[in-house]
Amino acid sequence: ASLAASPASETFAASEAAAAAAAAAGGADEGAPSEGGGGSEAAAAAEAATAAAAPIALSVADIERVLGPPRFEPRRDVARRITKPGIALGLAATVFGGETLFVEVEQVAGKGAVQMTGNIKEVMQESVKAALTWIRANVAELGLAKTASEALLNTTDLHIHFPEGATPKDGPSAGVTITTALTSLLTGRLVRNDVAMTGEITLRGLVLPVGGIKEKVVAAHRAGVRTVLLPQANEKDLRELPQKVLDEMQFELVSDVREVIRAALVPADVTEAEAAGSASGDGSEPATDDGRQVPLSHPLPSVPTGVP
After folding, report:
1. How far, in Å, CA of 199 to CA of 209, rounded?
2. What pLDDT shows up at residue 131?
3. Averaged over 144-173, what is the pLDDT?
4. What is the distance between the alpha carbons of residues 51 and 13, in angstroms, rounded to a whole number?
5. Which residue among 127, 184, 214, 216 is the active-site one?
6. Is 216 annotated in the active site?
7. pTM over 0.85
8. Is 244 a catalytic residue?
């Protein structure tokens, strides 16, 4: 529909005309002689016309008719995409600023092969290998096997995918995200849809500091995510953030990947249906009016040692 067909736009046009008349009257009043009062009468008429114009009230439908539908909805997209085990949200820093980075993991019957797709470079491939080794070394602690020596994934192939394959990806900061996505898939526990994370991991499970914290946190904030898991050693970098972002964010500082897993994974009794309801706004906790996804109804837990 055209702008002229909208009642709100007609009111806007009337208001614009009244404002133009007021401006013209003001100029005439300045240049006119004091006797006669012609300029004052014109100014009064313009003021009356402005007062008669109704306030402009634009609804969301009006705005969409003029500007078209929203091109991007990143805040809703995050909640909609994290609705099954094996998906986690990481953060990346690029030359253009911060970006959110999804990691998706799926398993199929096989012989223990690992496939990686998504245009990832050598350093990120090494992060995948480190995450897999840590998980295999801690299968008993994670509840994936009865004993530490029990074989894991010998009859299963894993596919680890980083969406937006046209964009090259590299760097070590996705280590915690990859580990979380793998643990989520293998344990069957969902990752919280209101949490993003960044950090490098070691084979011992330590979380090492990374760069680009300001850009990454701003990207999480822009996507509607309000909780970010950061390496403990990056606490000093929070001083660089804008105050508005600091006021609206919650940070969980971690030094071990076990802390990441405990903070990022939801309790085992939360089903995929419940997560989908939270993401779409159909459940008991609807999405907010501004489009920000509502967190699953489990507060971020404190972070003790060990994994349940």
Report:
1. 6
2. 96
3. 82
4. 14
5. 216
6. yes
7. no
8. no
The residue assigned the tokens 């050693």 is 233
CA angle 237, 307, 276 (to 5 degrees): 80
pLDDT: which is higher, 154 or 186: 186
Return the amino acid letter for 193.
Answer: N
Tokens of 35: 């006797």
**178: its two tokens:** 């990859």
Q: Which of 173, 184, 214, 278 is catalytic?
A: 173
Q: Which residue has the tokens 């915690």?
A: 176
